[in-house]
Design a protein that fits this description.
It is a single chain. The chain is globular. The termini are far apart. The protein contains 17 helices and 13 strands. The chain has helices spanning 53-56, 65-68, 100-105, 127-140, 153-165, 180-188, 200-214, 224-230, 232-240, 257-271, 291-298, 310-322, 342-352, 361-374, 380-394, 416-424, 441-449; strands at residues 8-12, 20-22, 37-41, 95-98, 113-117, 145-150, 168-174, 192-196, 217-218, 248-252, 280-286, 355-359, 404-408. The protein has a six-stranded mixed sheet with strand order 4-5-13-10-11-12, with helices on both faces. Strands 8-7-6-9 form a four-stranded parallel sheet, with helices on both faces. Helix 4 runs parallel beside helix 5 (153-165), helix 5 (153-165) runs parallel beside helix 6 and helix 10 (257-271) crosses helix 13 (342-352). With 450 residues, it is α/β, with parallel strands linked by helices. Among the domains are: 1-46, no CATH class; 95-122 and 226-424, 3-Layer(aba) Sandwich (Rossmann fold), CATH 3.40.50.1100. Helix 5 (153-165) links the parallel strand 6 (145-150) and strand 7 (168-174). Bound molecules: pyridoxal-5'-phosphate and zinc ion. Pyridoxal-5'-phosphate (PLP) binds at residues 125, 127, 153, 221, 252-258, 333-334, 379, 381-382, 409-410.
């Protein structure tokens, strides 16, 4: 029997290769051609619920740990491993907030803006959606130790899941490039942390080589099973919209795992007849790390049924190298110039009629302050969504009455330095600095009541 007759299998995304592998293999890249791999399913062999609302009914049985998980509640849609391997620490208990105040600030129709707070995950970012799936696969293949390169949140999430599974974990971080909230988590959860004199792209390069040499299980978003978990962010948005679709999903773009996963989620739901149209997607880069934006909008790079023009990418990266370019943005989670999921992301843009934009650090920090003031707050990378949305509304690409879901990827406490600097140094119009007062009751009362 060929692997493509299995319930689930892995398949190379290169149409000229199409190599297939068993899910029991932990290979992360096609050994034949080096391209990315997808998890694929034979849905006719899986008892997928007939209506999306059947997934929601599992809330009633949430004393079952898999029904409690906001990822595994949708398990038939990521059916690559047996329940006995599934690792869950209560991820995906996140909310979609209808935010009328920010809608008003953006001059949108008041009921059309929704914020998906992925910062409410156990380690404080959306990465837990992916990690629960990757670690379930790690358990399935009998991994003993794992590793990742990280701008911060991947390491925090990996460290948490690794100790839940009793695996040894090693994090590769760039020197001086990690927000303190995230570094503190990796150390506290017991990961071995290796700080490399380089940026994220250097770490990504090294970790792949180390994993190959030492047989460590790699949990970066290159791992196709991690992306399977991240599909569920879209399922939960639809769930919280009463099983209706948004018109737009807005997401920050770093290594492009999320955008890749979201497109795959919609493609599969459509294939299953569970949705009847595909929402559009807007992917927002930081202007100091705008590879995707540049490649798509200026170099006209497209998916082209999987036959992506590799020369455009090679030339672009060669130029980055020649210029000794290192990305720079206060949104450290998206400070990446060679995104590993680039091709899968192009597939999403093709499927979802997507657009890509970039926003400055100043726009990011102002948007972050707005999200803090009127919502539950988020870290800088997440705020790129509202900054990007503001520009797309001004361009009339997104209409004021279209239903928009912004994915707020990480918690406000992840990066207190950016927040404190913005407010204390009065960096923008929404700064709210502390007021100095003498140690004197009358003077304090005067300050509060003036
Ligand atoms: C990882 C991360 C991103 C980038 O997501 P990709 O899937 O790599 O594009 C954005 N925001 C936060 C908070 C992150 O941790
Ligand atoms: Zn291949």
């Amino acid at each position: 029997m060929s692997v493509s007759e299995n319930i689930a299998y892995q398949k190379c995304i290169n149409p000229d290769c199409q190599a297939e592998f068993d899910c029991g293999e932990a290979i992360f890249k096609c050994p034949k051609c080096g391209e990315l791999l997808d998890a694929r399913y034979n849905f006719d062999k899986i008892e997928v619920p007939k209506k999306l609302s059947d997934f929601g009914n599992r809330w009633a049985t949430r004393n079952n740990r898999l029904d409690f998980s906001g990822v595994w509640r949708f398990r038939e849609l990521l059916n690559f491993c047996d329940d006995k391997y599934k690792v869950s620490i209560g991820e995906g208990q996140t909310i979609l907030e209808q935010n009328t105040a920010i809608a008003k600030y953006l001059e949108m129709k008041s009921d059309s803006l929704f914020l998906q707070y992925e910062g409410l995950n156990p380690s404080g970012s959306f990465k837990d959606n992916g990690m629960t799936a990757a670690f379930s696969h790690a358990m399935m293949v009998g991994a003993k130790s794992c590793a990742c390169a990280s701008t911060g949140n991947t390491s925090a999430s990996m460290a948490l899941y690794a100790h839940a599974c009793e695996l040894k974990s090693t994090v590769f971080i760039g020197s001086g490039r990690i927000a303190f909230g995230k570094l503190s988590q990796a150390m506290d959860y017991g990961s071995q942390t290796i700080q490399i004199l380089g940026d994220f792209d250097d770490c990504m390069h090294q970790v792949q080589a180390v994993c190959n040499k030492l047989g460590l299980y790699l949990v970066n978003s290159l791992n196709p099973f991690r992306l399977e978990g991240q599909k569920t962010i879209m399922y939960r948005i639809i769930e919280q919209l009463g099983w209706e679709l948004p018109d737009w999903v807005v997401v920050p773009g770093g290594n492009l795992g999320n955008s890749s996963a979201f497109g795959k989620a919609f493609a599969e739901l459509k294939e299953l007849g569970l949705i009847d149209r595909i929402p559009r997607i807007a992917i927002i880069n930081a202007s100091g790390a705008d590879t995707l934006c540049d490649l798509v909008n200026n170099k006209k790079l497209v998916w082209n049924d999987g036959r992506v023009d590799q020369k455009i990418i090679d030339d672009y990266y060669a130029d980055l190298t020649a210029r000794n370019f290192s990305p720079h943005t206060c949104a450290s989670a998206i400070e990446i110039s060679r995104p590993v999921n680039l091709k899968k992301c192009l597939r999403t843009i093709d499927l979802c009629n997507g657009v890509v934009r970039k926003v400055s650090d100043e726009e990011i920090c102002d948007a972050k302050a707005i999200i803090g003031k009127y919502g539950l707050g988020c870290e800088p990378a997440s705020a790129a969504t509202i900054a990007g949305l503001k520009n797309l509304l001004a361009e009339n690409v997104i209409g004021k009455d279209e239903r928009v879901a912004c994915v707020l990827t990480g918690h406000v406490l992840k990066d207190p330095n950016v927040t404190v600097n913005y407010h204390k140094e009065e960096q923008g119009p929404f700064s709210n600095p502390p007021i100095e007062a003498p140690n004197d009751l009358d003077a304090i009362i005067k300050l509060i009541t003036q």
